[in-house]
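Figure S7 source data.
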Amino acid sequence: MITKYKIGTPIETESVIKDIPVTEGAVSGFSLEEGAYKRFMNPKTVIYGLGETTRGINKRGFKYRSFCSDDPNHDEDKESLYAAQNFFIIDDGERVQGYYFDTPGIVEFDFGFTESNTIFITLKEKNAYIYLIEADSKIEIVKGFRDIIGTPFIPPKWAFGYGQSRWSYADEAQVKEVALRYKENDIPLDMIYLDIDYMERYKDFTIDEEAFPDFEAFVSEMKSMGIRLIPIIDAGVKVEDGYDVCEEGVKNNYFCKKENGEDLVAAVWPGRAYLPDFLDARVRRWFGDKYKFLLDKGIEGFWNDMNEPAIFYTEDHLKEVFEKIEDYKGKNLDINSFFEFKDLVGQVSNNMEDYARFYHNKDGEKYNHLSVHNIYGYNMTRAAGEAFERLSPDKRVLMFSRSSYIGMHRYGGVWTGDNKSWWGHLLLNIQQLPALNMCGFLYSGADTGGFGSNCTKDLMMRWLEVSIFTPLFRNHAAMGTRRQELYEFGDIKDFKELIKLRYALIPYIYSEFMKAAWENLMLFRPLSFDYKDSRVNEVEDELLVGESIMIAPVYKQNATGRYVYLPEDMKLIRFRGPKNYDEEILEKGDHYVKAQLNEVLVFIRKGHELPLAEPAMNVSKIDYSTIKYLGYEAKEKYKLYDDDGITRIKKSTY
Ligand code: MIG
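Tokens for the predicted MIG complex:
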């Protein structure tokens, strides 16, 4: 059952696509005290959800703040990452309830932080729709919620292959070298990502012609090697005379404006830049159509970046800072003024005052950016997704975004942004997956190996052992960090086996992904979604993946095994590669399970089967006639879903 409440005058986010009548009265389950929605928890209450956030699967005990943030330091004390996904489930033991706080403004979720047994939720804008979803189980709540927000984005099947990325491959030669080195090492690869340097001076929808003299020919040459190029698109549009995107935007009032009606000048990678007003349907249509420039050159997938939006500085703010610095000049700063001075300069980027400085035009109404901040990235990706339906009506196009809000899941996936090559972030990756899935983000994954910092070989091994299960499987690293392509770590044998295992698993991952998309299910689930016993609520580092398997990744440095809790008898498959594994039946309960660096622990659930194909160098080359089934007392055959992987597919045809 779904109940919809209306608080104040909500801004329509169009995240919910089903018409639900508004119920008058107070939000059931919460009391409203001093502006906060309040609710008591019992000692056993567990909270799931909120999508891409820090900390564990059980969100209890900390506080989170929905404010899409370009912050590359995903430390445990961060309350905001790139996403705002305000759906969560409260499991009190006897009763489960799901809530969705639909508002594009800031929301604070205090889940037992201030008072360990109390939830406080504060809306910065007192306008929202609040949805209460009630059902008998957590998965039924997820289904009910996903039913009202619509079917997730379905990528092409080749996007389930392995992708290599780096900020940045500078030119054709560097991209080609990556392709050749993967080939010569006999490692499958389906995608190479182009980061901002493929553009001419970071101008969206341009190509640096010195680096890529004949881009179209290059795209097709790479495709003949089985590799698709996936370029990045940034939110900010370079301010430059004669640049068509800039000029059209200025002429038609497509950019975000300041109070005085002038276009806001922000600075991002292209230098001075305008921010397209993606909340305006006209702008979405215009910007979306621009992707045609690259589609026409044979490009079939994109990633949208910097769309929180990230702002390095605004021209106006910088002016104010310089004026204030004038005041400090020549003075002997006391400690307080020193810190003021330091903050002044240190807080120039992604500054809250800057976010309050500009406005949007949504359906003819003017909104201050702060009141709609969290739907900016969503609407950038929506612009692209809606355009692809027009420009590529038959063929799927890959799209994923850094910033997100619920609703965006219909237009693209997400990657979890600038993580680091830290063991802690490998665990965070594991813990974010089910929360993302609940909110509809099925095509998702982290930068494998970590974006910032230097990756070590053992961390890369262990990270691959998780990422081989994630639909979006990309190795990406930041400029200035150690090279992270798999052939850069010396002996490559073990890496190769893992990537091949991924390709052998693709029939299963794709099949389970599609079922999850159509049936409003989660590909990744906490154990407590399928099992009921006193232990499952505590398991923070094992996941069910689709219907047949559970995984228990090793995520600690130098570990050659780990404790695994089995909620029922399962068959352990200890994989060293698609053809190299051993099997063992383990009983319900706790086990210490050995897993050397090159070993992946997969547990087949009782009564289920896992399809496993012969690996191939590309997704399109996977031969389904080679599929074998590894089962554990399976009574029925596994129902394998497949299709051509390219044609857009609507629910009715499934
Ligand atoms: O300010 O395009 O998260 O994946 O490599 C950094 C350069 C901008 C942030 C993205 C990252 C990408 C990088 N971008």
